[in-house]
Amino acid sequence: MATTADFRNGMCIEYNGQLWFIVNFQHVKPGKGAAFVRTKLKNVSTGKVLENTFNAGVKVTEARVERRPHQFLFNDDMGYHFMNMESYEQTPLAKEIIDTPELLAEGMEVEVVYHADTETALMVNLPNFVSFEVTYTEPGVRGDTSSTNSLKPATVETGATIMVPLFVNTGDKIKIDTRDSSYVERVKE
Q: Domain limits at 178?
């Protein structure tokens, strides 16, 4: 058992009979009344994000999870196939437990989170940043816009479409944040 004082981002807890990851939490001590903890919880099975408030000191059941390194091999009608980097065992996983499956590239190393008691895969975490080559984008024309934050769609080598600045061209290599599928910077070679 853990209390609200033990909360940390990424912690997995059992709440209302389901498994939830703590996305964000904040301890609040108002001037009047008891302290409490405001949290954002992400449901493991549905991916739904819920805001919830716990009274300070409340006991919760912490679910034991293990993070194991895997390598993405390929996907087909059976699912997305990963290989455990330690045991070399291949495992097909459902698309629903992958945050951004359109950014998976063959050979990419990822982290698969398993429930330690039942040995079921809960989620697949991609690296925070990946670099891909832009396979197609419309050419940006100088003077095409009145603002400095103009974006255009670009398709990368995995087939994903990312919004990029006007100066990015076909053939450029770009860095992408996998947490929100956003453009970070152009990669120098």
A: 129-186
